[in-house]
Write a structure and sequence with these properties.
Organism: Cupriavidus yeoncheonensis
Largest sheet: 7 strands, parallel
Radius of gyration: 20 Å
Number of strands: 12
Helix content: 25-40%
Number of helices: 11
Protein name: NAD-dependent epimerase/dehydratase domain-containing protein
GO cellular component, one term: cytoplasm
Domain NAD-dependent epimerase/dehydratase: 7-217
CATH topology of the domain at 3-162 and 198-230: Rossmann fold
Oligomer: single chain
Shape: globular
CATH architecture of the domain at 3-162 and 198-230: 3-Layer(aba) Sandwich
Mean pLDDT: 90
InterPro entries: Epimerase_deHydtase, NAD(P)-bd_dom_sf, NAD(P)-dependent_oxidoreduct
CATH class of the domain at 3-162 and 198-230: Alpha Beta
Strand order of the largest sheet: 3-2-1-4-5-6-10
């Protein structure tokens, strides 16, 4: 019999997986995590039950999910690499484990699913005609999950904008705008001038997922939600928030430079991660905004100034010393 308050997190060392695991534990859940090699170095004893195994091996996932009422599928190949080979087999293992355990599957979704016909403001049920390889994989992931829901496995999908948060990970904030572990001297912004961009603060996304799990019995078998997150109207609000956070610590105001897309183009034939990042460039050339508004009880929303400062601090990008008060800028 599955325990409704036991959750298996796949990808618990990733940005979103780690944050969901932390918040589930804080909400009184028993949290189990599957990882090759078991507990990572520095893991706090007792906070998470670490199980040694591989998300690519079905029996490992089935064993880890035994007795769990929830499986959080937050595992992805690092650096966008080998998606066609790895993403769908890992999801199939999660679906098999969810079916065997009678568990709800939770998936952090993206905007990759949508093509030009659904832009600029795709709704949860907008047609999915992606123009990229990763988008096609995302559509197939959701198709398989919808099929699983039709056979009795409850599914919750939360789609959000580009992640940022106190842990480094596969996101543009920590891989492009700033460099983890280094004081911010230069901000390299990937977007076109004047084009809006949607961001999602990881603790807010995780909070939304935990709240939905607490209400899972009231949701349809296949439930999809969009989060509004932080909408940067012209590409300058995130940059200015970073600059203000650095200035509050007494640091020199960071310069703003264009992201070197030319370098990615030149290196793409030789570096898989650059090739995959290049494919996502269209999301920086035109505004794509998921409006949200359907989350029961409203959406968790940390003010941008506070979220950016916590992110930079967590990434080790702020000078040490006394910080000035963080006062949210007018919206």
């Amino acid at each position: 019999m599955a325990n409704g308050k036991c959750a298996l997190v796949l990808g618990a060392t990733s940005g979103i997986g780690s944050e969901v695991a932390r918040q589930l534990g804080a909400a009184g859940w028993q949290v189990r995590a599957l990882r090759r090699g078991g507990a990572p170095a520095g893991a706090q004893p007792g906070a998470i039950e670490w199980v040694s195994g591989d998300a690519m091996r079905r029996q490992d996932v089935l064993s880890a999910a035994h007795g769990c009422g929830v499986i959080v599928h937050a595992v992805n190949p690092p650096g966008y690499r080998r998606w066609p080979e790895l993403v769908l087999p890992m999801l199939d293992n999660t679906i098999a484990a969810g079916r065997a355990a009678g568990a709800t599957i939770v998936l952090p979704g993206t905007v990759y699913n949508f093509g030009p016909d659904a832009l600029p403001e795709p709704a949860e049920d907008a047609p999915q005609h992606p123009v990229t390889r990763k988008g096609a994989i995302r559509v197939e992931m959701e198709r398989r999950l919808r099929e699983a829901a039709g056979h009795g496995t409850r599914v919750i999908i939360v789609r959000a904008g580009d992640f940022f948060g106190p842990q480094a990970g596969n996101n543009w904030f920590s891989q492009a705008l700033v460099r983890p572990g280094q004081a911010v001297r230069t901000i390299r912004y990937p977007g076109a001038s004047g084009v809006g961009h949607q961001w999602a603060y990881l603790p807010d996304v995780a909070n939304a997922m935990v709240r939905l799990l607490e209400q899972a019995a009231l949701l349809p078998p296949f439930a999809v939600f969009h989060l509004a997150g932080h909408w940067d109207t012209d590409g300058t609000e995130m940059v200015r928030a970073i600059q203000r956070a650095v200035a509050r610590r007494g640091g020199q105001l960071p310069k703003v430079r264009r992201f070197p897309w030319w370098l990615l183009s030149a290196a793409a034939p030789f570096v898989a991660t650059f090739r995959e990042m290049q494919e996502m460039r269209y999301l920086w050339r035109e505004p794509v905004r998921m409006r949200g508004g359907r989350l029961p009880g409203g959406e968790p929303h940390t003010p941008l100034e506070q979220a950016v400062e916590a992110t930079l601090k967590g990434l080790g990008c702020l000078e040490t010393g006394t910080a000035a008060p963080c006062v949210p800028s007018p919206r």
